[in-house]
């Protein structure tokens, strides 16, 4: 399988035009960071196995700070640095949120 591809539905795709990146999240529990080149899109970095393979259902990015914020199907919100693939913080929301 191509490492650029998700293995399940893609839940969100965002662009970082300052760094020429595409960031995507999926129900396969991964966030992929891919570099846009003049003729192709190349695999760059990846966050895997989010909260023991929970589906990522929503994602937003803060391009000025290289931050990705995503929510999982078990009510967790996770904040990571997508430049260095560094975990910053997770927050458990109430189940009825």
Largest beta sheet: what is the strand line-up? 1-2-3-4
The average pLDDT is: 89
At CATH level 2, the architecture is: Beta Barrel
Radius of gyration: 13 Å
From the N-terminal CA to the C-terminal CA, the straight-line distance is: 36 Å
**Number of separate helices:** 0
How many distinct beta strands?
8
Major sheet, described briefly?
4 strands, antiparallel
- CATH-defined topology: Thrombin, subunit H
Oligomer description: single chain
Low-confidence stretches: none
- Indicate the CATH class: Mainly Beta
Topology pattern, helix = H, strand = E: EEEEEEEE
Report the portion of residues in β strands.
over 45%
Which secondary-structure class do the elements indicate?
mainly beta
Number of domains: 1
The global form is: globular
Record the SSE blueprint.
Blueprint: E1 10-16, E2 21-26, E3 31-36, E4 41-47, E5 56-62, E6 67-72, E7 76-81, E8 86-92
Antiparallel strand pairs: 1-2, 2-3, 3-4, 5-6, 6-7, 7-8
Short description:
0% of the residues lie in helices and 54% in strands. It has strands spanning 10-16, 21-26, 31-36, 41-47, 56-62, 67-72, 76-81, 86-92.
